Amino acid sequence: MPNSMSEQLQQDMECEGLFDCFHGLKELDTECFQVLVDAEEPLTIDEIAEGVERERSTAYRAVQRLLQTGIIQKEQVNYDHGGYYHVYSQTGSVEITRDMRRMLNEWYAKMGQLIQEFETKYEQHDAVAQSVEG
Question: Where is the Transcription regulator TrmB N-terminal domain (predicted)?
Protein backbone atom coordinates (compact mmCIF):
# COMPACT_ATOMS: atom_id res chain seq x y z
CA MET A 1 0.00 0.00 0.00
CA PRO A 2 1.37 3.45 -0.86
CA ASN A 3 2.47 5.62 2.04
CA SER A 4 1.72 9.18 0.93
CA MET A 5 -1.62 10.63 -0.05
CA SER A 6 -0.31 11.60 -3.49
CA GLU A 7 0.80 7.98 -4.06
CA GLN A 8 -2.63 6.73 -2.98
CA LEU A 9 -4.35 9.10 -5.40
CA GLN A 10 -2.21 7.84 -8.28
CA GLN A 11 -2.76 4.15 -7.47
CA ASP A 12 -5.52 2.12 -9.11
CA MET A 13 -7.75 0.81 -6.32
CA GLU A 14 -10.65 -1.59 -6.27
CA CYS A 15 -13.52 -1.17 -3.86
CA GLU A 16 -12.25 -4.11 -1.79
CA GLY A 17 -9.08 -2.08 -1.20
CA LEU A 18 -11.16 0.21 0.98
CA PHE A 19 -11.05 -2.37 3.78
CA ASP A 20 -7.27 -2.14 3.85
CA CYS A 21 -7.38 1.64 3.57
CA PHE A 22 -9.99 2.18 6.30
CA HIS A 23 -9.27 -0.71 8.65
CA GLY A 24 -5.78 -1.99 7.81
CA LEU A 25 -7.16 -5.43 6.99
CA LYS A 26 -5.04 -8.15 5.45
CA GLU A 27 -5.65 -10.10 2.25
CA LEU A 28 -6.91 -13.10 4.22
CA ASP A 29 -9.41 -10.89 6.05
CA THR A 30 -10.80 -9.75 2.72
CA GLU A 31 -10.95 -13.37 1.48
CA CYS A 32 -12.92 -14.39 4.59
CA PHE A 33 -15.28 -11.47 4.06
CA GLN A 34 -15.82 -12.54 0.45
CA VAL A 35 -16.65 -16.10 1.55
CA LEU A 36 -19.33 -14.69 3.85
CA VAL A 37 -20.70 -12.43 1.10
CA ASP A 38 -20.95 -15.38 -1.29
CA ALA A 39 -22.66 -17.61 1.28
CA GLU A 40 -26.42 -17.96 1.24
CA GLU A 41 -26.57 -18.32 5.02
CA PRO A 42 -24.34 -17.55 8.03
CA LEU A 43 -21.23 -19.74 8.32
CA THR A 44 -19.26 -21.33 11.14
CA ILE A 45 -15.52 -20.77 11.54
CA ASP A 46 -14.91 -24.24 10.13
CA GLU A 47 -16.91 -23.40 6.99
CA ILE A 48 -15.08 -20.09 6.57
CA ALA A 49 -11.71 -21.84 7.01
CA GLU A 50 -12.68 -24.38 4.35
CA GLY A 51 -13.76 -21.55 2.03
CA VAL A 52 -10.37 -19.83 2.24
CA GLU A 53 -8.43 -23.11 2.44
CA ARG A 54 -6.70 -22.24 5.71
CA GLU A 55 -6.45 -23.74 9.16
CA ARG A 56 -9.32 -23.05 11.54
CA SER A 57 -7.14 -20.98 13.91
CA THR A 58 -5.89 -18.79 11.05
CA ALA A 59 -9.41 -18.16 9.79
CA TYR A 60 -10.53 -17.46 13.36
CA ARG A 61 -7.96 -14.67 13.74
CA ALA A 62 -9.11 -13.10 10.45
CA VAL A 63 -12.74 -13.33 11.54
CA GLN A 64 -11.87 -11.64 14.85
CA ARG A 65 -10.30 -8.72 12.96
CA LEU A 66 -13.43 -8.45 10.80
CA LEU A 67 -15.64 -8.48 13.88
CA GLN A 68 -13.59 -5.69 15.47
CA THR A 69 -14.20 -3.48 12.43
CA GLY A 70 -17.93 -4.18 12.37
CA ILE A 71 -17.81 -5.52 8.81
CA ILE A 72 -19.23 -8.87 9.94
CA GLN A 73 -21.44 -9.95 12.79
CA LYS A 74 -21.57 -12.98 15.07
CA GLU A 75 -24.70 -14.83 16.15
CA GLN A 76 -25.04 -17.56 18.76
CA VAL A 77 -27.04 -20.64 17.78
CA ASN A 78 -28.25 -22.80 20.67
CA TYR A 79 -28.60 -26.57 20.51
CA ASP A 80 -31.93 -27.96 21.76
CA HIS A 81 -30.26 -30.04 24.48
CA GLY A 82 -27.74 -27.48 25.67
CA GLY A 83 -24.60 -25.96 24.24
CA TYR A 84 -24.17 -23.53 21.39
CA TYR A 85 -22.02 -22.52 18.46
CA HIS A 86 -21.42 -19.27 16.58
CA VAL A 87 -22.15 -18.35 12.99
CA TYR A 88 -20.92 -15.30 11.12
CA SER A 89 -22.44 -13.16 8.40
CA GLN A 90 -21.74 -9.94 6.55
CA THR A 91 -22.99 -6.74 8.11
CA GLY A 92 -25.34 -4.95 5.73
CA SER A 93 -23.59 -2.99 2.99
CA VAL A 94 -25.52 0.16 3.95
CA GLU A 95 -24.11 -0.04 7.49
CA ILE A 96 -20.59 -0.71 6.21
CA THR A 97 -20.65 2.22 3.79
CA ARG A 98 -22.21 4.52 6.43
CA ASP A 99 -19.35 3.66 8.79
CA MET A 100 -16.72 4.27 6.08
CA ARG A 101 -18.32 7.64 5.24
CA ARG A 102 -18.31 8.58 8.93
CA MET A 103 -14.64 7.66 9.24
CA LEU A 104 -13.81 9.59 6.07
CA ASN A 105 -15.62 12.68 7.36
CA GLU A 106 -13.79 12.46 10.69
CA TRP A 107 -10.47 12.08 8.86
CA TYR A 108 -11.30 15.03 6.58
CA ALA A 109 -12.17 17.23 9.56
CA LYS A 110 -8.95 16.22 11.33
CA MET A 111 -6.84 16.98 8.24
CA GLY A 112 -8.60 20.34 7.83
CA GLN A 113 -7.74 21.19 11.44
CA LEU A 114 -4.10 20.19 10.96
CA ILE A 115 -3.84 22.24 7.75
CA GLN A 116 -5.26 25.25 9.61
CA GLU A 117 -2.70 24.75 12.40
CA PHE A 118 0.06 24.53 9.79
CA GLU A 119 -1.11 27.74 8.13
CA THR A 120 -1.35 29.60 11.45
CA LYS A 121 2.08 28.44 12.62
CA TYR A 122 3.94 29.26 9.41
CA GLU A 123 1.99 32.44 8.72
CA GLN A 124 3.37 33.80 12.01
CA HIS A 125 6.85 32.62 10.99
CA ASP A 126 6.50 34.38 7.61
CA ALA A 127 5.39 37.60 9.34
CA VAL A 128 8.41 37.56 11.67
CA ALA A 129 10.79 36.87 8.77
CA GLN A 130 9.34 39.76 6.73
CA SER A 131 9.61 42.21 9.63
CA VAL A 132 13.28 41.26 10.15
CA GLU A 133 14.00 41.74 6.44
CA GLY A 134 12.09 45.03 6.23
Answer: 23-88
- pLDDT, residue 1, reads 44
Helix (H) or strand (E) segment spanning residue 59: helix 56-69
* Mean pLDDT along residues 36-43: 96
In the 3-class helix/strand/coil scheme, how is 106-121 assigned residue by residue? HHHHHHHHHHHHHHHH
CB 59 within 8 A of CB 6: no
Domain formed by 12-91, architecture? Orthogonal Bundle (1.10)
Cα 51 → chain centroid: 21
Strand-pair partners of 76: 86
* Domain ranges across the chain: 12-91, 92-133
**Which has the closest alpha carbon to 77: 69, 89, 67?**
89
- How far from 21 is each of 25, 41, 48, 116, CA to CA, in Å? 8, 28, 23, 24
- Residue 30's region, left for phi above 0, alpha for psi from -120 to 50, else beta, is alpha
CA distance 19 to 3: 16
Res 7 pLDDT > 70 = yes
The predicted structure's pLDDT at residue 97: 85
